[in-house]
From TrEMBL, chain A:
Family the entry assigns: Belongs to the binding-protein-dependent transport system permease family. MalFG subfamily.
Ranges where the ABC transmembrane type-1 domain occurs: 207-427
Keyword Transmembrane helix tagged: yes
Keyword set, alphabetical order: Cell membrane, Membrane, Sugar transport, Transmembrane, Transmembrane helix, Transport
Gene Ontology biological-process annotations: maltodextrin transmembrane transport
Record's bilayer topology term: Multi-pass membrane protein
Pfam families noted in UniProt: BPD_transp_1
Gene3D superfamilies: MetI-like
UniProt protein name: Maltose/maltodextrin transport system permease protein
Amino acid sequence: MVVLLNGKVHARAGALLSLLFMGLGQIYNRQFVKGLLYALLELYVLFFWSKPFVEGMRGLITLGDKVQQRSARGTIIEQGDHSIILMITGIIFALLFLLFIAVYALNIRDAYKVGAMRDKGEKPRNFAASIAHAWEQGFAYILLTPSFVFALFTIVLPLIFGILIAFTNYSGPNHLPPKNLVDWVGFETFTSLIQFRAWSNTFLGVLIWTIIWALLATFTTYFTGLFYALLLNHRVVKFKKFWRTLLILPWAVPGVISLLIFRNMFNGEFGPINQYLKMIGLQAIPWFSDPFWAKFAIVVVNIWFGFPYWMALMSGVLTNIDKELYEAAEIDGAGGFQRFRSITLPLILFSTAPLLIMSFANNFNNFNMIYLFTSGGPANPSYSYAGSTDILISWIYKLTLEQNKFNMASVVSIFIFIVVAGFSIWNFRRTRAFKEEDMVA
Amino acid sequence: MMQSSTRPGDKLAAWVIYLILIVTAIAVIYPLYWVVLGALNGADAGPLPRIVQ
C-alpha cells in the first residue's frame, strides 16, 4: 500500500484537497496565487450564487406554487408565480451549475497533475509560468470556450426548454401562465398522443402525409432537375446559358411572394388556372377544397420552386463528367440509355446523394410551402387542429400559436427531432460521398 | 470532336427539346408575370384577386 501511494502521494493528496475545496490542492502544491484564485471563485459562487441557485432549482422542480390572485372584478391582487419563467431560470441555473462543475473538475485535474509533477521531483510552475503553459497547451480550448458557452445558452437552452415542455401540462385554456400554474405531468402527453383517438388519428394521418410529402417533394424536384440538366446538356441545344438563366428564375424570386401568387392562381373561384380550364371546356378543379387536389397542387407548385436548384447543381456535375467515359462506352457499343444508366446516373447520384437526403429532411419540415400555400387546408373533421394538407411542422404551428397546446406541440417536435436527427446522422455516417474512398460499388 | 458532329435524329431531338424548353419557360415565367403585375398594381391584400376581377 505504501509502495502504491509512494508513487503518487502528492498527486492524490492535491486532488483530494481540491475536491474538498477549490484551490486547496493548488495551495498544497505551493501554487498559492492559482490556489487563491480558485478558492475565491468557490467562495464567490457559494456566497452570491448558492441562494439564487437553490431558488432556481426549486422553481424548476415545483414550477411555482403561488397562484395568481384576482378580485371579483378580475383585477390582479397578487401576481403569483410564472411557471415558464421559473422553468427557464431553472434551466439557466442548471447550465451554469454544469459550467461550475466543469471548472471544479479542471481544478481537481490540475491539482492532480501538478502533484504528479512534484512526485516525479519536478518543481511546480509559478503563476506566470502556469498561465503561459495553459495558453500554449490549451490554446484551442481557450479560443473555443466563448463560442461553447454561447452555444450552450443559444442552442442547448432552447432545446432543453422545448423538450421539458413535453413533460408538463402547459396548454390552454387551463394551464397558461401567468394566470395559471403549469405542472409536471411526466409522460402523460406522450400517452395522450397515442391513446386518445382524436390525437392519435391526427398524428398518424399527418405523419403519413408528411412522409409522403417529403418523399414526393424530394424526388419530383430531384428528377425534374435531372431531366432539365440533361436536356440543357444535350449537344443540339443552343444558347445554353440563356435557357439555364431562364429556368433558374423561380429560385431568384422570394418564395413567400411566389407562394402567395400561386395561392391566388389556384383559387377555385377566380384563379386564372380554373378560368383557363373553363375556357377550354373543362370543369373547374376544387384545388383548395378537395384534399387530393390540394395535395396535388402543393406537389406541382413545389416542383416549380425546387427543380432549379437541382438543375443548377446537376448541370455542374454533368459538365465535370469526363467525356472520354462516354466515348469509350460508345466504342463498346453502349446506347444512349445505357450510357445514361451506367455513367451519368451513378456519377450524379454519387455527388448528390448527401444533398438528396438532406433535402428529404428539409422537406419534412417545409413549413413555408404548406402554410403559405394551403394553410394546411382543406379542413379535416377527423383531425384535431389540423387540416388535410398539414404536415407535422405546420400542425405544430397551429397547436402552439393558434391553440396554445404547447405540451402536445413539444411532443410532436421531439418526434420530428428524432426523425430529422436520425436522417442527418445516417447521412453523415453512411453516405459514401463523404468518404474518401473508391466510389465503385 | 464527337460533340460537333451531326447525327441522324438530331433534328427531331432538337425539335422535341426546344418544344419542352419553350413550354417549361412559359410555365416558369407565367407565375412571375403575375408577381410583376401584382407589384405594379400595388394591391394590399394580394395582387391577383384585384387583377382578375
